Amino acid sequence: MSTEKETPVRLEQSSLDEKADTAKHIDLEQDPTDTPEWRAKERKIVKRLDMTLMPMVWILYLFNYLDRNNIAQARLNSFEEDLGLVAENFNTAVSILNVGYMLAQLPSNMILTRVRPHLYLPLCAALWSCVSASTAATHTYGGLVAVRFCLGIVEAPFFPGAFYVMSCWYTRKELALRTAVLYSGLVLATAFSGLIAAGIFAGLDGVRGLAGWRWLFILEGLGSFTAAIVAMFVIPDYPDSKTGSGRWLFTEEEKKFAADRIIRDRVSQPEADRSVWYGLRLAAKDYRTWIFVLMLCSNHTAYGFNNFFPTILKGFHLGSTTVTLLLTAPPYLVGAVVSFLVAYSSDRNNERGYHISVPMAVAMIGFIISISTTRIPARYFASFLYTSGCFSANAMVYTWAAGTLNQTPEKRACATAMVNLLSQLGNIWSPYFFPGSDGPRYTMAFLLMLGFSVISICCCLAMKLGLRRDNEKLLRQGEEEGRAIVLYTL
């Protein structure tokens, strides 16, 4: 998965080739990144990260989503009957998690810049494991809502925190593929959650007097707690930290090199105050933060089918509950493969906007097919399109935001948390797109998800135009000041 470091100036649009080539050769002799020695050191650093940091955060994110999304599979067991859920109670239980998620996320990422990730993130994982497992002990709608709200609070730190730690070690050129790998934990969790639930419901339903859905929460909570303990010994802290697995992964010289290459990868901007609160102000004042918020919120809304996918497939009348759960897996597995291909292409071509808008256009085709026909084979085929499109696009938005809003590490931490936090609004309102009275077609839901896909594509085009103008300004500054510059990725 190792990639080579590009030269300090990489042109993001063909119309500026001549100017970029001029700026590229300014002060080239002082640039050490274009040497075989530099690239060899990079490959060594990246390989070690790919063998430690990436597998561990991937496993934790897989459990993060298993513990969050298992409510969708529980619904196909006796979940609603045992808790006395009626009307929109289930929709509220799905939605309330995101309220807790939003409340905790930004403070958590601000704290993360000042604490040890190798302890903070696994401790959060251990907490959410216990909270998720406690769902098995609920007997009322009120208890379920309380547990789901608390689960959102303790799960909130992980994804933006893990992504921030990755962005402190990987350059923009390396980050898209790694983000897709991380995001595949979500995709595969959703795919295998149906398979896991099918096995538990078939083998443990009624064992020791517990319904299958209760065993589902207990066993998946136990698995994530075990992974959290292991993560404490594997996840590195920051390149300049003297704690975490970095102590035995890298020498002091290698850690200084890792920090230097991240500094060189930042878009050319004046140095700024490194306080957390100043980083928050920078993020809030940057108009691009709010475009990314709208973009990702639209993506999450379009991806609102996720918590209702087993219910959607149940409406196809393809067979028993076990068969339905098994058939939820293939669309997500294909989505994981597609997201890898999209991320690889994005890194290779150093482009982001089209790698978001094209997958969202594919998702739109899937939504249109679902609206237009009642034929089961066509609607099942459509599910492959919208799952692949939405998952691929979501992973790319995080990468684009982190590479664009990176004036300081504190700004990047606050901005990515703000983007992820406010995008959760899409997860709060999208469950109400699926009232039981609209099943099994859910026409209103597919129409709304189609509309939000259009908004996401419009945001991509607006961001590309804005960054193109910013790159032109940076090139002019580089020529005037006689220095090499690093451009925004379009």
Could you characterize the architecture of this molecule?
There is one protein chain. With 490 residues, this protein is an all-alpha fold. The chain has one domain (53-235, 266-481): Growth Hormone, Chain: A (Up-down Bundle). It is 73% helix and 0% strand. The protein has 22 helices and no strands. It has helices at residues 17-24, 36-51, 53-74, 79-83, 89-112, 117-133, 141-155, 158-169, 172-204, 212-231, 246-249, 252-265, 276-285, 287-302, 309-314, 321-327, 329-349, 354-372, 376-404, 409-423, 425-429, 443-481. Helix 1 (17-24) packs across helix 22 (443-481), helix 3 (53-74) runs parallel beside helix 6 (117-133) and helix 9 crosses helix 19. It is globular, with a radius of gyration of 23 Å. It starts with 16 loop residues before the first helix and ends in a 9-residue tail after the last helix. The relative contact order is 0.15. Mean pLDDT is 86; it is low at 1-29.
